[in-house]
Input
Amino acid sequence: MKKLIIATLLGGVGIASAQAQSNVTIYGTVDVGVVSERGGAAGSVSKVTSGVGSASRLGFKGNEDLGDGMSAVFVLEEGVLADTGAQDSAGQAFNRQSFVGLSSREYGALTLGRQKTVLYQALGEVGDPFALGYAGTVKNLFPLAGVNTRTSNTVAYNSPMVNGVSGEVTYSAGEQAGDASAGREIGAALAYTGAVFNARLVYSSRNSDTAAVTATATAAAIQAVSHDLGHTTLLVANYDFTLLRAYFSYSLDKGFNSAVLPNLTNPYGYAVAPKATTNSADLLIGATIPVSRSGTIMTSYVHKDDKQFGQNASQLGVGYSYALSKRTSTYLSYAHITNKNGAGYTVGNDTEAGSGNSALDIGVRHSF
Output
């Protein structure tokens, strides 16, 4: 009898403790494909690789109801190389996202930590029919390399949605000693979300200064750490015509680091390596076409207009995804890039920059 009473009391304590804890969800994606790349100085490259359609990851997210429509929220998300089991960023756990904050149905959400940029979210969620993955990813030509995907030390505010309209403002501290503006990034987005039409207008400003400039610094020292601001203005939209969903994206990129090259290795072995432009425009026109209850065709045309060096590039991409279930799908994709005037853009996927001007992918993705 005593044992039964003790067990009952301990069970009650356990239930009360569980009710007081956050609601935590473990989630993730495992994506592995076979990739065949052609056209680069390295020759033909065939490999089994992780994160072709979408980056493999393991994450933890949770919330705690604080009452009056207010919740505490957090996300910890780590990238995984599913083909080898390694971290996709050695020595940096939870490199994809790591933030905590407060969310209110009435006032919006305020979060602090490592988070996605407004540019990355707009293209991935609205502007790219490939959703940033597969061989046809918009990342091959649009400015999403470097700090344009995620930023650390970020404070983000997301407004509540009113009649489909919402907004977001982000501030990422550079945390450079002696200079509060060095390394700083500021972003803003205005979004409309509807049943058939979605659109976002996004602006991002990046300060690529790397250190404070002292009064006694030499001209060479000042030039080494000081750069003009990088600005990107992006408009994305998609519309559901029932038979297909059409996509449009257009960006203007100006200033240092406004359009970092996705592949910095001079992949075609030019005598003069490609340069990152500080004045360019990017265009995407694409579509997703459902061809059955489980199958979807993805296609896009992407063009980079380099107004500084004339190193233009165009990409044609096509893909097919077949859902075996709500969580598991197979895919096939192909893309080809035409480079001009010494441009060095390559066909990659969601996690890799690629090695040549064409690539064919086939793989499996499972989400949990």
User: Anything to note?
Assistant: The chain has one domain: 32-367. The first helix runs from residue 2 to 20. The domain at 32-367 is CATH 2.40.160.10 (Porin).
